[in-house]
Amino acid sequence: MTLAAEPHTYADYDELLEDYYERGWTDGLPVVPPTAEKVQRFLTLAGLEPDEILGSVPTRAVVVTAEHAAINAVMAGCRPEYFPAVVAAVRAHLDEMGNCHSTTGTLSGAVQTVIINGPVRNEWGVASGQGCLGPGFRPNATIGRALRLVIRNVCRAIPGFLDRASFSSPMRYSFCFAENEEASDWVPLHVQRGFAAEQSTVTVASFMNFVPATDMTSRTCVDIANSIVKTMRSKGIGGDKWLGQDHNVVAIVGKEHHRYFIEEGWSKADLQHYLWERIHEPTSGPDDRFCNIGYPEGILVVAAGGAGMAETWLLMPHLAHAITRVIEPAQL
Amino acid sequence: MAIIGLDPSSGPIGGGDTKLLAPRPNSLSGQVLGLVANGLGRGEDMLDAIARNLMATDDLAGVVKVVKGSVSIAPHPDDWARLTEGATVAITGFGG
User: Fold this and answer.
1) Domain that holds residue B80
2) Do A240 and B72 make contact, defined as CB atoms within 8 angstroms?
3) ipTM score of complex
4) Which of A42, A110, A142, A269 might form a disulfide with A70, Cβ 3.0–4.6 angstroms?
Protein backbone atom coordinates (compact mmCIF):
# COMPACT_ATOMS: atom_id res chain seq x y z
CA MET A 1 0.00 0.00 0.00
CA THR A 2 1.57 3.27 -1.15
CA LEU A 3 0.84 6.40 0.80
CA ALA A 4 0.91 9.91 -0.67
CA ALA A 5 1.65 11.94 2.46
CA GLU A 6 5.12 13.39 2.87
CA PRO A 7 7.16 11.61 5.58
CA HIS A 8 9.08 13.62 8.18
CA THR A 9 11.88 12.09 10.23
CA TYR A 10 12.49 12.99 13.88
CA ALA A 11 15.01 11.96 16.49
CA ASP A 12 12.30 11.09 18.98
CA TYR A 13 8.66 11.60 19.95
CA ASP A 14 9.27 14.93 21.66
CA GLU A 15 10.85 16.35 18.52
CA LEU A 16 7.92 15.14 16.40
CA LEU A 17 5.43 16.63 18.81
CA GLU A 18 7.08 20.05 18.84
CA ASP A 19 7.39 20.12 15.04
CA TYR A 20 3.77 19.08 14.49
CA TYR A 21 2.67 21.82 16.83
CA GLU A 22 4.89 24.41 15.13
CA ARG A 23 3.51 23.41 11.72
CA GLY A 24 -0.05 23.91 12.97
CA TRP A 25 -0.92 20.23 12.64
CA THR A 26 -2.39 19.74 16.11
CA ASP A 27 -5.30 21.08 18.12
CA GLY A 28 -2.80 22.07 20.80
CA LEU A 29 -2.90 18.70 22.55
CA PRO A 30 -0.33 15.93 22.11
CA VAL A 31 -0.93 13.57 19.20
CA VAL A 32 -0.11 9.96 18.46
CA PRO A 33 2.65 9.80 15.81
CA PRO A 34 1.01 8.91 12.48
CA THR A 35 3.50 6.37 11.22
CA ALA A 36 3.01 4.66 7.87
CA GLU A 37 2.51 1.32 9.59
CA LYS A 38 -0.32 2.60 11.77
CA VAL A 39 -2.00 4.45 8.92
CA GLN A 40 -1.84 1.40 6.68
CA ARG A 41 -3.33 -0.72 9.44
CA PHE A 42 -6.29 1.65 9.77
CA LEU A 43 -6.89 1.67 6.03
CA THR A 44 -6.62 -2.12 5.73
CA LEU A 45 -9.05 -2.64 8.56
CA ALA A 46 -11.56 -0.33 6.90
CA GLY A 47 -11.01 -1.95 3.50
CA LEU A 48 -10.07 1.37 1.92
CA GLU A 49 -7.38 2.35 -0.54
CA PRO A 50 -5.43 5.45 0.47
CA ASP A 51 -6.70 7.47 -2.48
CA GLU A 52 -10.38 6.68 -1.87
CA ILE A 53 -12.13 10.06 -1.95
CA LEU A 54 -14.37 10.67 1.06
CA GLY A 55 -15.57 14.07 -0.09
CA SER A 56 -14.47 17.57 -0.94
CA VAL A 57 -14.76 21.21 0.01
CA PRO A 58 -15.17 22.92 -3.37
CA THR A 59 -14.90 26.46 -2.00
CA ARG A 60 -11.46 25.58 -0.59
CA ALA A 61 -10.28 23.39 -3.49
CA VAL A 62 -9.81 20.56 -0.97
CA VAL A 63 -10.32 16.85 -1.64
CA VAL A 64 -10.34 14.59 1.41
CA THR A 65 -9.04 11.05 0.99
CA ALA A 66 -9.16 7.97 3.18
CA GLU A 67 -5.43 8.45 3.80
CA HIS A 68 -6.03 11.95 5.14
CA ALA A 69 -8.69 10.60 7.49
CA ALA A 70 -6.52 7.70 8.64
CA ILE A 71 -3.52 9.91 9.45
CA ASN A 72 -5.67 12.24 11.52
CA ALA A 73 -7.51 9.36 13.20
CA VAL A 74 -4.18 7.89 14.30
CA MET A 75 -3.10 11.30 15.59
CA ALA A 76 -6.38 11.68 17.51
CA GLY A 77 -5.69 8.47 19.42
CA CYS A 78 -8.34 6.28 17.81
CA ARG A 79 -8.15 2.53 18.11
CA PRO A 80 -8.01 0.97 14.61
CA GLU A 81 -11.53 -0.43 14.88
CA TYR A 82 -12.94 3.08 15.37
CA PHE A 83 -11.65 4.19 11.96
CA PRO A 84 -14.79 3.17 10.00
CA ALA A 85 -16.74 5.54 12.25
CA VAL A 86 -14.30 8.34 11.48
CA VAL A 87 -14.70 7.62 7.76
CA ALA A 88 -18.48 7.76 8.10
CA ALA A 89 -18.27 10.99 10.08
CA VAL A 90 -16.01 12.63 7.50
CA ARG A 91 -18.34 11.56 4.70
CA ALA A 92 -21.31 12.95 6.60
CA HIS A 93 -19.51 16.20 7.35
CA LEU A 94 -18.61 16.63 3.68
CA ASP A 95 -22.11 15.92 2.39
CA GLU A 96 -23.22 18.94 0.37
CA MET A 97 -26.09 19.67 2.76
CA GLY A 98 -23.72 19.43 5.71
CA ASN A 99 -22.51 22.79 4.38
CA CYS A 100 -19.05 22.36 5.88
CA HIS A 101 -17.52 25.54 4.51
CA SER A 102 -20.09 27.63 6.34
CA THR A 103 -20.24 25.59 9.54
CA THR A 104 -16.47 25.57 10.06
CA GLY A 105 -15.73 29.09 8.85
CA THR A 106 -18.51 30.91 10.67
CA LEU A 107 -17.96 33.71 13.15
CA SER A 108 -20.29 31.86 15.51
CA GLY A 109 -17.88 28.99 16.13
CA ALA A 110 -20.44 26.32 15.27
CA VAL A 111 -19.62 22.86 16.65
CA GLN A 112 -19.82 19.50 14.90
CA THR A 113 -21.26 16.69 17.00
CA VAL A 114 -21.05 13.01 16.13
CA ILE A 115 -23.93 10.85 17.39
CA ILE A 116 -23.35 7.11 17.24
CA ASN A 117 -26.09 4.52 16.94
CA GLY A 118 -26.20 0.77 16.54
CA PRO A 119 -24.16 -2.22 17.74
CA VAL A 120 -20.73 -0.56 17.72
CA ARG A 121 -21.80 1.54 20.70
CA ASN A 122 -21.60 -1.49 22.96
CA GLU A 123 -18.72 -3.18 21.12
CA TRP A 124 -16.50 -0.13 21.57
CA GLY A 125 -17.97 1.22 24.79
CA VAL A 126 -19.14 4.53 23.36
CA ALA A 127 -20.57 6.40 26.31
CA SER A 128 -24.28 7.19 26.24
CA GLY A 129 -25.03 7.42 29.94
CA GLN A 130 -23.48 9.14 32.93
CA GLY A 131 -21.15 11.93 31.79
CA CYS A 132 -21.41 10.94 28.14
CA LEU A 133 -20.85 14.45 26.79
CA GLY A 134 -17.66 14.94 28.79
CA PRO A 135 -14.16 13.50 29.06
CA GLY A 136 -13.16 10.02 30.10
CA PHE A 137 -14.36 7.81 27.24
CA ARG A 138 -11.85 6.87 24.57
CA PRO A 139 -14.17 6.33 21.58
CA ASN A 140 -16.12 9.49 22.35
CA ALA A 141 -12.95 11.53 22.80
CA THR A 142 -11.00 10.23 19.84
CA ILE A 143 -13.67 9.83 17.14
CA GLY A 144 -14.87 13.38 17.70
CA ARG A 145 -11.28 14.63 17.84
CA ALA A 146 -10.40 12.82 14.61
CA LEU A 147 -13.18 14.60 12.75
CA ARG A 148 -12.00 17.94 14.10
CA LEU A 149 -8.39 17.23 13.12
CA VAL A 150 -9.56 16.45 9.57
CA ILE A 151 -11.51 19.71 9.58
CA ARG A 152 -8.39 21.55 10.70
CA ASN A 153 -5.58 19.82 8.86
CA VAL A 154 -7.24 18.77 5.63
CA CYS A 155 -10.17 21.17 5.25
CA ARG A 156 -8.07 24.11 6.45
CA ALA A 157 -10.42 25.43 9.13
CA ILE A 158 -7.59 26.99 11.09
CA PRO A 159 -8.33 29.83 13.53
CA GLY A 160 -7.55 33.16 11.93
CA PHE A 161 -7.36 31.59 8.47
CA LEU A 162 -10.50 29.87 7.16
CA ASP A 163 -11.94 29.44 10.65
CA ARG A 164 -13.19 32.94 11.45
CA ALA A 165 -14.84 32.16 14.80
CA SER A 166 -14.79 35.11 17.19
CA PHE A 167 -14.53 32.90 20.27
CA SER A 168 -14.78 29.33 18.95
CA SER A 169 -15.70 26.65 21.48
CA PRO A 170 -14.06 24.06 23.75
CA MET A 171 -16.57 21.64 22.26
CA ARG A 172 -14.53 21.85 19.06
CA TYR A 173 -11.83 19.65 20.59
CA SER A 174 -14.25 16.74 20.40
CA PHE A 175 -17.99 16.19 20.63
CA CYS A 176 -19.12 12.60 20.21
CA PHE A 177 -21.56 10.47 22.14
CA ALA A 178 -23.98 7.59 21.62
CA GLU A 179 -27.70 7.25 22.02
CA ASN A 180 -28.79 5.11 24.97
CA GLU A 181 -30.89 2.76 22.86
CA GLU A 182 -31.39 0.36 25.73
CA ALA A 183 -32.98 2.95 27.99
CA SER A 184 -36.47 2.36 26.59
CA ASP A 185 -38.39 1.14 23.59
CA TRP A 186 -37.90 4.46 21.82
CA VAL A 187 -37.00 3.95 18.17
CA PRO A 188 -33.28 4.73 17.79
CA LEU A 189 -32.28 7.79 15.83
CA HIS A 190 -30.75 5.84 12.96
CA VAL A 191 -33.84 3.67 12.56
CA GLN A 192 -36.02 6.77 12.45
CA ARG A 193 -33.72 8.01 9.68
CA GLY A 194 -34.21 4.90 7.56
CA PHE A 195 -31.43 2.55 8.63
CA ALA A 196 -31.73 -0.95 10.05
CA ALA A 197 -31.42 -1.46 13.80
CA GLU A 198 -28.50 -3.85 13.27
CA GLN A 199 -26.57 -1.26 11.30
CA SER A 200 -24.27 1.18 13.04
CA THR A 201 -24.30 4.81 12.00
CA VAL A 202 -22.96 8.24 12.74
CA THR A 203 -25.08 11.35 12.56
CA VAL A 204 -23.12 14.57 12.22
CA ALA A 205 -24.94 17.74 13.20
CA SER A 206 -23.44 21.24 13.25
CA PHE A 207 -24.89 23.44 15.91
CA MET A 208 -24.53 27.03 16.99
CA ASN A 209 -25.99 26.92 20.51
CA PHE A 210 -25.84 24.24 23.19
CA VAL A 211 -28.72 25.03 25.48
CA PRO A 212 -30.07 23.21 28.54
CA ALA A 213 -33.82 22.90 28.96
CA THR A 214 -33.57 22.39 32.70
CA ASP A 215 -36.84 21.60 34.43
CA MET A 216 -36.57 20.13 37.90
CA THR A 217 -40.17 20.71 38.96
CA SER A 218 -42.45 19.46 36.19
CA ARG A 219 -43.99 16.07 36.78
CA THR A 220 -45.85 15.47 33.54
CA CYS A 221 -44.79 14.91 29.96
CA VAL A 222 -46.72 17.93 28.75
CA ASP A 223 -45.06 20.25 31.24
CA ILE A 224 -41.58 18.92 30.46
CA ALA A 225 -42.23 19.16 26.73
CA ASN A 226 -43.45 22.72 27.19
CA SER A 227 -40.17 23.56 28.94
CA ILE A 228 -38.28 22.16 25.95
CA VAL A 229 -40.45 24.20 23.58
CA LYS A 230 -39.86 27.36 25.60
CA THR A 231 -36.10 26.84 25.50
CA MET A 232 -36.11 26.15 21.77
CA ARG A 233 -38.17 29.26 21.11
CA SER A 234 -35.88 31.39 23.28
CA LYS A 235 -33.24 30.87 20.59
CA GLY A 236 -35.34 30.33 17.48
CA ILE A 237 -34.29 28.85 14.16
CA GLY A 238 -34.28 31.07 11.11
CA GLY A 239 -34.94 30.12 7.53
CA ASP A 240 -32.48 29.74 4.70
CA LYS A 241 -33.48 29.46 1.05
CA TRP A 242 -30.77 27.01 0.09
CA LEU A 243 -31.27 24.68 3.07
CA GLY A 244 -35.04 24.68 2.65
CA GLN A 245 -37.16 22.92 5.26
CA ASP A 246 -34.76 20.16 6.28
CA HIS A 247 -33.23 21.96 9.24
CA ASN A 248 -32.70 19.86 12.34
CA VAL A 249 -32.49 20.47 16.03
CA VAL A 250 -31.10 17.77 18.31
CA ALA A 251 -32.85 17.21 21.64
CA ILE A 252 -30.74 15.08 23.98
CA VAL A 253 -33.34 13.90 26.46
CA GLY A 254 -31.78 13.23 29.83
CA LYS A 255 -32.62 10.28 32.04
CA GLU A 256 -34.81 12.21 34.49
CA HIS A 257 -36.94 13.67 31.72
CA HIS A 258 -36.93 10.47 29.72
CA ARG A 259 -38.50 8.43 32.51
CA TYR A 260 -41.58 10.67 32.57
CA PHE A 261 -42.10 10.09 28.85
CA ILE A 262 -41.74 6.35 29.33
CA GLU A 263 -44.05 6.25 32.33
CA GLU A 264 -46.78 8.12 30.46
CA GLY A 265 -46.29 6.08 27.31
CA TRP A 266 -45.00 8.80 25.03
CA SER A 267 -43.09 7.46 22.08
CA LYS A 268 -40.30 9.41 20.47
CA ALA A 269 -42.70 10.26 17.66
CA ASP A 270 -45.26 11.55 20.17
CA LEU A 271 -42.67 13.93 21.60
CA GLN A 272 -41.52 15.04 18.16
CA HIS A 273 -45.08 15.86 17.07
CA TYR A 274 -45.87 17.70 20.30
CA LEU A 275 -42.74 19.83 20.06
CA TRP A 276 -43.10 20.47 16.34
CA GLU A 277 -46.64 21.76 16.57
CA ARG A 278 -45.69 24.23 19.28
CA ILE A 279 -42.45 25.60 17.84
CA HIS A 280 -44.47 26.95 14.92
CA GLU A 281 -47.04 28.85 16.95
CA PRO A 282 -47.12 32.67 16.59
CA THR A 283 -44.42 34.48 18.53
CA SER A 284 -45.22 36.61 21.57
CA GLY A 285 -42.10 38.77 21.65
CA PRO A 286 -38.35 39.01 20.98
CA ASP A 287 -37.54 36.17 23.41
CA ASP A 288 -40.13 33.86 21.89
CA ARG A 289 -39.11 32.98 18.35
CA PHE A 290 -40.33 30.83 15.50
CA CYS A 291 -38.36 27.62 14.85
CA ASN A 292 -38.11 26.72 11.20
CA ILE A 293 -38.18 22.91 11.22
CA GLY A 294 -40.03 21.47 8.25
CA TYR A 295 -41.50 18.32 9.80
CA PRO A 296 -41.64 16.58 13.20
CA GLU A 297 -38.86 14.09 12.41
CA GLY A 298 -36.58 17.06 11.83
CA ILE A 299 -36.40 17.28 15.61
CA LEU A 300 -33.80 14.60 16.32
CA VAL A 301 -34.67 13.17 19.72
CA VAL A 302 -31.86 11.21 21.36
CA ALA A 303 -31.95 9.56 24.79
CA ALA A 304 -28.70 9.92 26.71
CA GLY A 305 -27.14 11.02 29.99
CA GLY A 306 -27.20 9.82 33.56
CA ALA A 307 -29.41 10.22 36.59
CA GLY A 308 -29.70 13.38 38.66
CA MET A 309 -30.23 16.53 36.66
CA ALA A 310 -33.70 16.88 35.19
CA GLU A 311 -32.78 18.38 31.85
CA THR A 312 -32.77 18.00 28.11
CA TRP A 313 -29.91 19.53 26.12
CA LEU A 314 -30.71 21.20 22.82
CA LEU A 315 -28.31 21.55 19.93
CA MET A 316 -29.69 24.52 18.01
CA PRO A 317 -28.51 24.20 14.42
CA HIS A 318 -26.09 26.19 12.37
CA LEU A 319 -26.69 26.44 8.63
CA ALA A 320 -26.67 22.75 7.79
CA HIS A 321 -28.69 19.58 7.75
CA ALA A 322 -27.81 16.74 10.12
CA ILE A 323 -26.41 13.92 7.99
CA THR A 324 -26.46 10.20 8.87
CA ARG A 325 -24.05 7.70 7.33
CA VAL A 326 -23.48 3.98 7.83
CA ILE A 327 -20.39 2.77 9.64
CA GLU A 328 -19.16 0.07 7.29
CA PRO A 329 -18.07 -3.02 9.26
CA ALA A 330 -14.34 -3.38 9.82
CA GLN A 331 -12.42 -6.09 7.93
CA LEU A 332 -11.33 -8.00 11.03
CA MET B 1 15.17 5.80 17.99
CA ALA B 2 14.20 7.80 14.93
CA ILE B 3 10.51 8.16 14.23
CA ILE B 4 8.87 8.96 10.90
CA GLY B 5 5.54 10.77 10.95
CA LEU B 6 3.30 11.58 8.00
CA ASP B 7 2.08 15.03 7.00
CA PRO B 8 -1.61 15.10 8.02
CA SER B 9 -2.50 18.17 5.97
CA SER B 10 -3.80 18.81 2.48
CA GLY B 11 -0.92 21.11 1.66
CA PRO B 12 0.43 24.53 2.52
CA ILE B 13 -2.01 26.94 4.14
CA GLY B 14 -3.56 29.22 1.56
CA GLY B 15 -2.23 27.18 -1.36
CA GLY B 16 1.40 28.22 -0.91
CA ASP B 17 2.52 31.06 -3.12
CA THR B 18 -0.18 30.58 -5.73
CA LYS B 19 -2.81 32.72 -4.00
CA LEU B 20 -1.98 36.33 -3.21
CA LEU B 21 -3.96 39.26 -1.92
CA ALA B 22 -5.60 41.31 -4.65
CA PRO B 23 -3.74 44.54 -5.48
CA ARG B 24 -4.83 47.52 -3.39
CA PRO B 25 -5.38 50.68 -5.49
CA ASN B 26 -4.10 54.00 -4.15
CA SER B 27 -7.36 55.70 -5.04
CA LEU B 28 -10.96 54.71 -5.71
CA SER B 29 -11.20 57.23 -8.52
CA GLY B 30 -12.38 55.51 -11.68
CA GLN B 31 -12.83 52.14 -9.96
CA VAL B 32 -15.95 49.99 -10.24
CA LEU B 33 -17.10 49.05 -6.75
CA GLY B 34 -18.35 45.51 -6.17
CA LEU B 35 -20.73 44.91 -3.27
CA VAL B 36 -21.56 41.45 -1.91
CA ALA B 37 -24.50 41.44 0.47
CA ASN B 38 -24.85 38.23 2.48
CA GLY B 39 -28.51 38.75 3.31
CA LEU B 40 -28.11 38.93 7.07
CA GLY B 41 -29.64 41.71 9.14
CA ARG B 42 -29.52 45.08 7.41
CA GLY B 43 -26.24 44.35 5.67
CA GLU B 44 -27.63 45.30 2.26
CA ASP B 45 -28.79 48.69 3.56
CA MET B 46 -25.34 49.30 5.02
CA LEU B 47 -23.54 48.40 1.80
CA ASP B 48 -25.91 50.63 -0.20
CA ALA B 49 -25.14 53.51 2.16
CA ILE B 50 -21.40 52.94 1.81
CA ALA B 51 -21.74 52.90 -1.96
CA ARG B 52 -23.74 56.15 -1.97
CA ASN B 53 -21.09 57.83 0.16
CA LEU B 54 -18.22 56.59 -1.98
CA MET B 55 -20.00 57.62 -5.16
CA ALA B 56 -20.34 61.12 -3.73
CA THR B 57 -16.77 61.46 -2.49
CA ASP B 58 -14.46 59.23 -4.55
CA ASP B 59 -15.44 59.53 -8.19
CA LEU B 60 -16.31 55.85 -8.66
CA ALA B 61 -16.96 54.68 -12.23
CA GLY B 62 -19.81 52.44 -11.18
CA VAL B 63 -21.20 49.84 -8.79
CA VAL B 64 -21.86 46.12 -9.24
CA LYS B 65 -24.03 44.69 -6.46
CA VAL B 66 -24.59 41.05 -5.68
CA VAL B 67 -27.13 39.88 -3.13
CA LYS B 68 -26.54 36.27 -2.18
CA GLY B 69 -29.49 33.93 -2.64
CA SER B 70 -28.74 32.27 0.69
CA VAL B 71 -26.82 33.40 3.73
CA SER B 72 -25.06 30.07 3.98
CA ILE B 73 -23.43 29.51 0.61
CA ALA B 74 -21.32 31.37 -1.95
CA PRO B 75 -22.95 33.63 -4.55
CA HIS B 76 -24.48 32.02 -7.63
CA PRO B 77 -21.88 31.43 -10.38
CA ASP B 78 -23.61 33.99 -12.62
CA ASP B 79 -23.31 36.58 -9.87
CA TRP B 80 -19.66 35.66 -9.34
CA ALA B 81 -19.02 36.18 -13.05
CA ARG B 82 -20.81 39.52 -13.02
CA LEU B 83 -18.76 40.59 -10.01
CA THR B 84 -15.35 39.42 -11.14
CA GLU B 85 -15.80 40.68 -14.68
CA GLY B 86 -17.28 44.03 -13.76
CA ALA B 87 -15.79 45.15 -10.46
CA THR B 88 -12.24 46.36 -9.86
CA VAL B 89 -12.55 46.72 -6.09
CA ALA B 90 -15.03 45.08 -3.72
CA ILE B 91 -16.56 45.24 -0.28
CA THR B 92 -18.30 42.33 1.34
CA GLY B 93 -19.86 41.71 4.71
CA PHE B 94 -19.81 38.57 6.76
CA GLY B 95 -21.55 37.60 9.94
CA GLY B 96 -24.86 38.89 11.18
Assistant:
1) 33-96
2) yes
3) 0.94
4) A42
